[in-house]
Design goal:
By secondary structure, this protein is of the alpha+beta class. The chain has a domain of 62 residues. Helices cover 75% and strands 12% of the residues. It is built from two helices and five strands. The longest helix is centred in the middle third of the chain and has 145 residues. 3% of the residues are buried.
């Protein structure tokens, strides 16, 4: 092979290498564009999917919220209904207790009234008996007073004269002069004409001598 042929072959090889390099660049550029486009598509698809998932989640959350609200309303209605039933039952029971208490109170008042009436009747009867007894005693005392004659005792001795009333009065006066704070409840007089004296005993305890 000649030197000229070798140079030509070398130039052709370099040219092919340049063409191959350009082809590789074009392929790389095309691949890069394709990859970029694919990435955009993937990104767009991902964004769309994310939006769909988000919408689905929001929809599900709204459904759950509505269901919870509905359940809460049902529970509240049931609670209100139950409370009304309990209140009605309590009111009914309270009315029954009140009626029973009223009946017992009325019965107790009737019993108390009957007892008071019986006690009053007994007191009236007892008062009547006492009045009757007092009248009988008074009548008996009046009868005795009427039947009892007036009495006067007068002592006459050795030219002297002294009555019972004077002796009692002198005995009380002498006693009071000594025992001024002792009331006189009973007086006994003992006459001793031979001694020209009378002796007194007051309240069965205090004694003294009266000169006649």
């Amino acid at each position: 092979m000649t030197s000229a042929d070798s140079s030509k072959e070398t130039r052709e090889s370099v040219k092919k290498a340049e063409e191959f390099k350009e082809e590789a660049k074009r392929a790389a550029s095309t691949l890069g564009s394709a990859l970029a486009a694919g990435a955009e598509e993937i990104k767009a698809a991902a964004g769309k999917k994310t939006a769909e998932v988000k919408d689905e989640a929001a929809k599900k959350a709204a459904e759950v919220k509505d269901e919870a609200a509905k359940k809460a309303a049902e529970v509240k209605d049931e609670a209100v209904k139950k409370a009304a039933e309990v209140k009605g039952e309590a009111s009914k029971k309270a009315a029954e207790v009140k009626d029973e208490a009223a009946k017992k109170t009325s019965a107790a008042k009737a019993v108390t009234k009957a007892k008071h009436a019986a006690a009053k009747q007994k007191a009236v009867h007892k008062t009547a008996q006492m009045k009757k007894k007092a009248s009988e005693v008074k009548a008996s005392a009046a009868e005795k007073m009427v039947r009892k004659p007036e009495q006067t005792v007068i002592l006459q001795y050795a030219g002297k004269e002294i009555g019972e009333d004077e002796l009692v009065a002198r005995a009380i006066a002498m006693h009071s002069a000594v025992e001024e704070n002792v009331p006189v409840r009973k007086v006994a007089i003992y006459l001793k004409p031979e001694e020209s004296a009378a002796y007194y005993v007051i309240n069965d305890k205090y004694t003294g001598k009266i000169e006649l």
